[in-house]
Amino acid sequence: MAGTFFFGSLMFERSADWKAAKAYYERGAIYEGRIEGYNGGGLLVRFYSLMGFLPFPQLGPSHSCKEPNKTIREVAEDLVGAVIPLKVIQADEESRKLIFSEKEAIWSKFSNHLKVGDIFEAKVGYVEDYGAFVHLRFPDGFYHLTGMVHVSEVSWDLVQDVRDILSAGDDVKVKIINIDREKSRITLSIKQLEDDPLLETLDKVIPQDGSLNPGSLGINEESNIEPLPGLETIFQELLREEGIDDVRINRQGFEKRVVSQDLQLWLSNAPPADKTFVLLARAGRQVQEIQLTTSLDQEGIKKALQRVLERVP
């Protein structure tokens, strides 16, 4: 009789604990869980009378960053007996699945401290074809959150394979360029902390007098220069804008490296001379200086360029 009573009491306790687990899941509350052991796929977590599971991929990055030479098994051994913040990401009494995530708990604790434009010291976790996953180092010295540097944000140079530039364990500096709080994703950039080679070129190519500097690029001063692909259409559209009287190519040059194959337009900060502004167009290595004769001021030209680029496919 006593045995029956004990079994029934245990069943009641477990049912109550499953309800508690579901409540944690629904509220998104953080549970401080003790690690009881581990197996080949993850860690075993005590939740009152229940035993839950924390898969290795749901561990926060700080454990591996702290001692990068340790295997995941050694990390697991060190965590046995530790109490860490967790979130319930699955609580199914019928299938007896109680799954935890440390990553989700850490996101809740630290993501509110982030904003676009923040700069972090970071460590590369792993690299894929499309980019690198990087762990952010917080002021307490721990790597709490992970973001991704897309291949297009690794370098101003054309990157064919991220692995040629970054490897797991590399220390890098990154800038936050986007935070998706709904999907718990951070987008990072390495190249935005470096000077854009084009802007460096602009300082050299278009000094304050607004003219090309022949010493900075290979300069071609022939009168029969062909516009870069797509530029002629932009010229036609610019001439349709009120206040723009004339558009013509002045000179062209060639940079030492390719930054982008896309056509890019830049307006010089040089003061206008005789109602003439200077634009710089670039595609691949080729750079062309464009003279714009206009009655518009600099802000008016920017707005005209914006309207034109919205019309041109």
From TrEMBL:
Protein origin, superkingdom: Eukaryota
Record-level Gene Ontology MF annotations: nucleic acid binding
Pfam families: S1 (PF00575)
Domain S1 motif per the UniProt entry, residue ranges: 28-103, 117-191
UniProt protein name: Uncharacterized protein LOC116212375 isoform X2
Gene source species: Punica granatum (Pomegranate)
Name of the gene encoding the protein in the UniProt record: LOC116212375
